[in-house]
Amino acid sequence: MFVLGIESTAHTLGVGIVDADGKILADVKSVYSPTEGGIHPREAAEHHQQSCLLVLKDAMDQTGISLRQLDAIAFSQGPGLPPALRVGAVMARALAYTLKIPLLGVNHCVAHVEQARFFSKAERPLVVYLSGGNTQLTTLESNRYRIFGETLDIALGNMLDMFGRAAKLAHPGGPKIEELARKADGTYLPLPYTVKGMDLAFSGLLTAAKRLLKEGADLVTVCYSLQETAFAMVTEVVERALAHTQRTELLVTGGVAANKRLREMLQIVAKNHSARFASVPPKYAGDNGAMIAYTGLLLQREQIETPLSASHVMPKWRLDQVKIEWH
Ligand code: ATP
Ligand code: FE2
Prior knowledge:
The chain has helices at residues 41-63, 82-99, 108-120, 156-166, 173-181, 203-214, 219-245, 260-272, 289-301; strands spanning 2-7, 12-19, 24-31, 72-78, 103-107, 126-130, 135-141, 144-150, 195-196, 199-200, 249-253, 276-279. By secondary structure, the protein is α/β, with parallel strands linked by helices. It has two domains: 2-112 and 286-321, 2-Layer Sandwich (Nucleotidyltransferase, domain 5); 123-284, ATPase, nucleotide binding domain (Nucleotidyltransferase, domain 5, 2-Layer Sandwich). Helix 6 (203-214) packs antiparallel against helix 7. Adenosine-5'-triphosphate (ATP) binds at residues 9-10, 108, 112, 131-134, 157-158, 160-161, 172-175, 178, 254-256, 258-259, 286-287.
């Protein structure tokens, strides 16, 4: 049994292939990076169109199997940028139709969570999903990922990327900010800290950090202060959620999970609450086709197929709208 997964929600066109046990046989990607400004949806789609066949071919070549040996085609059906999503959807429909095999529409957020669960072998974790488009605290309860807390404005990764642009760092800003913050001497500049119950807000923090830059503050010190503040906010809500849910596993996933300082802070809070800390491997923290293939495998096992007539992209499809049949 082989499932091929296609990721195309935002910046990444990825193709992954897994076997019946979820083992990754191939994971190839091409990432669109805007020359300036944020991701332009149509430019991202253009990039995906140009790279999709090369990425597909590379992935197939790595596995040594032929297209005819595939058992199902999974694709990111949402959420994401409509023009970018459509490229993956068209590719998936064409493959499933020609090969006469099932088409599986995967929710991108569910895929980040499921792949992290697969690697960590976490059973019933409190999940922190931190990425370019999402900032969510979630646990699985009676067949749904329930959202405990989330951002009220922009996502954590998006905030870091916007600050990165203001500081003229290359896109994406997150990894560059981490690198700079590591050079800091511990000087902390106070910044707005916004936690409302279990929810977070980052735009005030972003505005204030950009203002510090404009006023001539040292970039390394601002990066450090920005990270410390934003990650402390996340850690606070995670701590409250751990105390409330009494979960004994904490799992972090999404692009920002690659950040060492964030992982260190969450590790401490997990330890204080006697919870096992786990994180998606940094290599798979960002968008990848393998996570779509793996979630497709979970759907395939439950025989949850997506007919062509229901394979339209869903740009606003939320994590908590998906019925989880496989745990
Ligand atoms: P979503 O999953 O919500 O649709 P996305 O697909 O755009 O969002 P991912 O690829 O999962 O996002 O994550 C990308 C984000 O992760 C970017 O905002 C990027 O800056 C951030 N990121 C990547 N590496 C790091 C790092 N080391 N530190 C902080 N942020 C990071
Ligand atoms: Fe993502």
